[in-house]
Fold:
Amino acid sequence: MKKKETVISKEFGLKLLSDMHRSRKFEEQVQKYFSLGMIHGTTHLGIGEEATAAGTVAGLEERDEIITTHRGHSQIVCKGVDVNLMMAEIFAKETGVCKGRGGSMHICDQAKGVWSGNGILGSAPPIACGIALTRKKKGEDKVTAVFFGDGSSNEGGCHEAMNLAAAWNLPVMFVCINNTYGMSTHISKVMKNTNISDRAAGYGMKAIDVDGNDVLAVYEAVKEARKYIGEGNGPVLVVEHSYRISGHSKSDGNLYRTKEEIAAWREKCPIKNFKAYLLENGIATEEELAQVEADATKALDDAVQFAIDSPYPSLDTVLDDVYAD
Ligand SMILES: Cc1ncc(C[n+]2csc(CCOP(=O)(O)OP(=O)(O)O)c2C)c(N)n1
Ligand SMILES: [Mg+2]
Structure:
């Protein structure tokens, strides 16, 4: 598994930390207002997986595009979408980034290179191939990074997309967040070979495994993959090993995993460990770390207030932006 090598600047370190704090606090606010009944529908939180989002987005170029999973809030926060507009979207308000029509799983902001995720597992990788083919044909130097989970990696669409992307040398980065569960099912119950990166060889594709709780290791792995794809070598599969501390979705009794397992992963919290790294290596001071967290707290408190204060879409706009053939 790849280990981190980079010596980083204070500015970059604090940016990664800020992205992870903002991601975590975004999720905590969503969790709070969901349980208060002020957010409807469903939502999937990725508390504990923040380094996969922050490190991946940092390793891409700003012009690159992403497609998120059903658990994609952090990926979108890190890609720089305004958290006020994201929060308003989840509260189904008119000021939301998709005017409140998309909600948690369909946040889309093309100006920021964020294509909508969706709830159909395995559907995003083929869509990524279509986007990447367009970029390639237009001669644009843009990579499409598509996130998917270990469970989703078994869907037909995922296999087909990897095969096609390799055969056509498409600029796609397949980013598998391996948190070892698909809902309540452990990876070992549905896969004989749980080493997902082994599959890449079958498609003639490069693969990299990385500790998904180590934000710098993720950044370096993705940067390496980005360079390889950008040089026209075709797609790369990056498998980021992490864990969701939060339950699968709205309700989760956690009956499929032990308290000890969750506690062990809490110890591997990507935010806690990166803070320790920044301090131990003299990259930032305690005060600077505290300031980054305070700023993130305020940004997300403000985002919630913005969402609460925003109006719902009016009924006479209900058919606006609806496409029906
Ligand atoms: C095609 C399809 N089958 C089943 C589901 C129900 N479902 C939603 S999330 C999920 C688990 C996905 O696991 P994984 O891909 O590992 O992502 P994670 O939830 O762990 O982030 C399942 C089975 C679905 N949304 N789409
Ligand atoms: Mg999973």
Q: What stands out?
A: The mean pLDDT is 96.
